[in-house]
Amino acid sequence: MTIGTTTGAESDPRQSKPSLWPWYAMGVAGVVTLIASFVVPPDAIQEQLSRILYVHVPAAWLAYLAFSITMLASAMYLWKKSMTWDRIAASSAEIGVLLTGLTLAVGMIWGKSTWGVWWTWDARLTLTAIMFFVYLGYLALRRSTDNLEARARRSAILGVLAVVQVPLVHFSVIWWRGLHQTPSLAKPASVDMDTEMVITLFLAVAMFTVMYVSMMTKRVELARLEDELLERDDSADLPVAGDAVVAPTLGGES
Amino acid sequence: MIFAQMPVAEQWNWVGLAYGVTYITLVVYAASVASRISKARRNLRGES
After folding, report:
1. CB-based contacts of A232, cutoff 8 Å, min separation 6
2. What would the pLDDT profile of B1-48 be if each residue is shown by its tens digit?
3. Within a domain: residue B3?
4. Taking CB atoms and an 8 Å limit, are A49 and B19 in contact across chains?
5. How many domains does chain B have?
6. What DSSP designation does A251 have?
7. Other CB atoms closer than 10 Å to residue A231's CB: what's the count?
8. Which of A222, A232, A233 is the best residue to mutate to test the B interface, defined by the most B CB atoms within 10 Å of its own CB?
9. Using CA atoms, how far apart are residues A166 and A145, in angstroms rounded to an integer?
10. B31 falls within a domain
11. Is the separation of the CB atoms in A151 and A145 below 8 Å?
């Protein structure tokens, strides 16, 4: 079995030093997003509520990116059979689920304050919820076995197939009429947003990308350590359940 | 009450709730990853 690139000092937990830069990068990115979102002027119609845009949209876009990375890494695993790709796919899926959950939660807050309801069975909302649960299923599938190869193969197949939901979710507001607004930036000829708002939105997306890369760095490190633990436990001479049970002797011998 | 009639202070409450949910979730997730890394490292070193 190939366990990826865990050689030398990197695989020895006593020698490898934990890198702290991802935590600092996350903190800086979070603060920059917060400041930018509160400095930009409010929208003419939605007023202060429009500021929710700067966390809702980046979370959704980064969830798309995370699931696309899962698909690419899953395809690479099926091709190369390297566990490094499996860890990247799984880590990205977990962060994607987190970001989709955030998109839904923040979207519900925005919906309640603007539409007057927490939830409506609009195509965009419903498909996003389905995508959330399908990727939760992906994470559950990975917990169904301790066999690293079987786990990687099964989840890679799902990781490749499940990505079809990303364009479905994104274009749902164009393909079906619903309550959710259509894209403001998908029509380059006539962008419906003020320049300051567009710049702030792209800055927030860039900062969320920094957070995604930082989280991925640490999450992949965790996946590598967890795989090493599983491997060690598999190879260790541990007692097997049922070893203490002795088969009864047949034929009345004592 | 939807935003057309909503006082500015109430609008800020909703914005604060959205940002609070986002940032608390991200911080809790980051802390959980950090804690799981520490635990895995301890286990690999043979500490309980």
Report:
1. B44
2. 555 678 888 899 999 999 999 999 999 999 999 999 999 999 888 876
3. no
4. no
5. 1
6. S
7. 15
8. A222
9. 27
10. yes
11. yes
